[in-house]
Amino acid sequence: MIKEDQPVYSLSNEPVPLLYSPIPAYRAFYVGMSDGTDVGELTHDLIALGYGDGLAQTDGYSAATAAAVKRWQRSLGLPATGQILLGEVVFEPGPIRVTSVTPTAGESVGGGAAGGGGTVLSAASTTRRISIDLDVGQQSEVAVGDKVTITLPNNATTPGVISSVGTVATSSSSGSSGPTVTVLVNPTDPAATGTWDQAPVTVTITTGTVTHALVVPVAALRAEPDGGYAVEVAGADGARRLVPVGLGLFDDANGMVQVTGTSLAVGQQVVVPQL
Asked: Any residues with CB less than 8 A from the CB of 155 and at least 6 apart, and which?
């Protein structure tokens, strides 16, 4: 894991450190540059790291900002120029973990006649998070804050909550036949998800709840000619009869369904056909 002020990689034998900002670096920093939120984030980092003596929290790059940058650069063994060129720092919202490294030591990255850059490494957040490609037709059925059950590769389960529901539909990368939106899930107890990294899991989303529900196995439902449903009840004498039922909420994780508007009672035995 790479934390703030630690080097992400080295460029020409000089460290390229990590600073915290939700805004990626897109320009150089120097006295006289236009104000911006990115400058404000840099100022915040310098103060947080202890280099902000006499530095006010603003979105402007002043002489005091340049002095703070010099102090920070000296601490890292970098040339104390008071400016930060594009590519000399990496901005990320928080700590990162490296998932892959593209070049080998000493290998040229990008460049060419156009002088463009190239990929050095791929990194991800250290926050345990699950990404779901959800069919756009189900987007309206889920919301931020919905509770979920996460089934891990070893079949253990742990709870979670939806933290984000995407609004832009894209082609799925998981084999879905139609467009999807990205739904992000945060585990309630990240430590319970183990040490797996980029592992496939199953997520069951709770979109509704009901108390004191009467439920039967989904497999016990029988479709009726009129479009309704019934279940077959086994009596104490071995006789069987069909009892009409209305359907409520489905519990996909446990294969159960709420039944309503019925004469069924708790404890009655229903017939589940053998497959």
From this structure: none
Q: Chain-centre distance of CA 49, in angstroms?
A: 28
pLDDT in tens, 74-107: 999 999 999 999 999 999 888 887 777 877 766 6
Domain regions of the chain by residue span: 7-124, 130-205, 215-270
Judge if pTM exceeds 0.90: no
Task: Note the CATH architecture for domain 130-205.
Answer: Beta Barrel (2.40)
Tell me the pLDDT tens digit for each residue of 219-240: 999 999 999 999 999 887 778 9
70 touches 29 (CB < 8 A): no
Residues 6+ apart with CB under 8 A from 228: 244, 246
Q: Give, to the nearest 10 degrees, the angle between helix 63-75 and helix 37-48.
A: 50
- What is the chain's alpha carbon radius of gyration, rounded to the nearest angstrom? 29
Q: Measured between alpha carbons, how far is 160 from 193 in angstroms, rounded to an integer?
A: 10
Fold of 7-124: Muramoyl-pentapeptide Carboxypeptidase; domain 1 (1.10.101)
